[in-house]
Amino acid sequence: MSQFTVSGRFKTRHGWQSFERQLDAPNEQVAEEWTVSRFGAEHGLDRMRVDISEVSAA
Length: 58
Fold this sequence. Notes:
single chain, 58 residues, alpha+beta, globular, Ribosomal_eL20, large ribosomal subunit rRNA binding, ribosomal protein, RNA-binding, Ribosomal_eL20_dom
């Protein structure tokens, strides 16, 4: 597995909040999916409220 950095923003009641997360995943698509999934689990956000702008290998 490779390490990826996923960056973007998510919608809060006060506007958009930027984020950057690093995680291990087999490829970029899985890294993006796991990031969206974690935001849903941790913050109760719908997928439409998470906007991923970049996925890069670290």
